[in-house]
């Protein structure tokens, strides 16, 4: 990739080496997807894991869309 800019590369890529996204896999509306949590109950869709081409045509599941979800807390039995 070639990037032409008057802005120094150090400024453009500042923080890129320390960025560690925290992805989760969930199922919503019968569609498995990978999300990136934003806040307690909101997340951004990163990608869909579906074999059905019709799932990719649904606007509400487009990558980058903000969705509401309820995280399930794992509990261990003693």
TrEMBL record:
InterPro entries: YlzJ. This is YlzJ-like family protein. The lineage of its organism: Bacteria, Bacillati, Bacillota, Bacilli, Bacillales.
């Amino acid at each position: 990739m070639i990037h032409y800019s008057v802005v120094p590369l150090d400024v453009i890529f500042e923080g890129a080496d320390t960025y560690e996204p925290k992805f989760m896999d969930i199922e919503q509306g019968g569609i498995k997807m990978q999300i990136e949590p934003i806040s307690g109950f909101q997340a951004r869709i990163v990608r869909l894991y579906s074999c059905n081409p019709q799932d990719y045509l649904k606007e509400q599941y487009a990558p980058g869309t903000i969705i509401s979800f309820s995280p399930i807390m794992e509990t261990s039995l003693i």
